Amino acid sequence: MVQLGLVGLGKMGYNMRERLRAAGHEVVGYDRNPDVTDVGTLADLVSTLDAPRIIWVMVPAGEATSQTVKEFSELLSEGDLLIDGGNSRYTDDKVNGDLLAAQGIGYIDAGVSGGVWGKDNGYGLMVGGAKADVERALPIFDALRPEGPREEGFSHAGPVGAGHFAKMVHNGIEYGVMQAYAEGFELLEAANVVEDVPAVIKGWQRGTVVRSWLLDLLVRALDEDPELDDLEGYVEDSGEGRWTLEEAINNAVPAPVISAALFARFASRQEDSAAMRAVAALRNQFGGHAVRKADE
């Protein structure tokens, strides 16, 4: 049994607390939401845990994570360990790690995949940090990862920053895979050749080279709404796709699929694209192609 302080009990953090407790670990959670928190403040959380402590932070990337790490640098003691399990940019990890190291506090960055299904299915984990720190936290990682061989759901990717870098690339790949499924769905719908599009996509779940968990989730969505008419085609991005492309540029690695998937998300947010109005105007100018007026 390992004792853990868990900060951030949102969609993933809450389920992680439940999975860890089901595995027999003692988890003390903190969240600003009084309905789910176990303690009132971060200071209360630290005082509740026995030293040396392990704290897992699951808060939004950026300033929220930086501020939380800063607070813990003043609350924790030498020999304690902090794990950032949010979607932080890998370059932030060195800053956070150095801040804690100055106080003798260990730091691990953990990329976590699995979403809202992780409570039952387990979470894919990619971590960065010193070997001794990672080994110390292995009971926690083993409880969170899927059942089966450790190497199939967990990786010690390298030093501090490597875990979040791996998760960043993972999410960039995710963008491309989802976009490919989405475009295939649209083509099947538009061609008027296939009569039962959901049945075709469901048939891909076994024996085909495109089967995956994301495909299973698309099938689930189509079971609930066969033509996806209940949804608006507006898609946000949480940052990792942009960061992946920036790193691809920095390392001169071609990433056309990921870039196209990210730009497709940008396009989904434009009710009236100025760029496409310009394309329509140009086609009309050089070729006399028909245009559709705004009031049509």
UniProtKB/TrEMBL annotation:
<keyword id="KW-0560">Oxidoreductase</keyword>
<keyword id="KW-0311">Gluconate utilization</keyword>
<dbReference type="InterPro" id="IPR036291">
    <property type="entry name" value="NAD(P)-bd_dom_sf"/>
</dbReference>
<dbReference type="Pfam" id="PF00393">
    <property type="entry name" value="6PGD"/>
</dbReference>
<dbReference type="InterPro" id="IPR008927">
    <property type="entry name" value="6-PGluconate_DH-like_C_sf"/>
</dbReference>
<dbReference type="InterPro" id="IPR004849">
    <property type="entry name" value="6DGDH_YqeC"/>
</dbReference>
<feature type="domain" description="6-phosphogluconate dehydrogenase C-terminal">
    <location>
        <begin position="163"/>
        <end position="296"/>
    </location>
</feature>
<comment type="similarity">
    <text>Belongs to the 6-phosphogluconate dehydrogenase family.</text>
</comment>
<dbReference type="GO" id="GO:0019521">
    <property type="term" value="P:D-gluconate metabolic process"/>
</dbReference>
<dbReference type="InterPro" id="IPR006114">
    <property type="entry name" value="6PGDH_C"/>
</dbReference>
<dbReference type="GO" id="GO:0004616">
    <property type="term" value="F:phosphogluconate dehydrogenase (decarboxylating) activity"/>
</dbReference>
<dbReference type="InterPro" id="IPR006183">
    <property type="entry name" value="Pgluconate_DH"/>
</dbReference>
<dbReference type="GO" id="GO:0006098">
    <property type="term" value="P:pentose-phosphate shunt"/>
</dbReference>
<dbReference type="InterPro" id="IPR013328">
    <property type="entry name" value="6PGD_dom2"/>
</dbReference>
<dbReference type="GO" id="GO:0050661">
    <property type="term" value="F:NADP binding"/>
</dbReference>
<dbReference type="InterPro" id="IPR006184">
    <property type="entry name" value="6PGdom_BS"/>
</dbReference>
<dbReference type="InterPro" id="IPR006115">
    <property type="entry name" value="6PGDH_NADP-bd"/>
</dbReference>
<dbReference type="Pfam" id="PF03446">
    <property type="entry name" value="NAD_binding_2"/>
</dbReference>
<protein>
    <submittedName>
        <fullName>6-phosphogluconate dehydrogenase</fullName>
    </submittedName>
</protein>
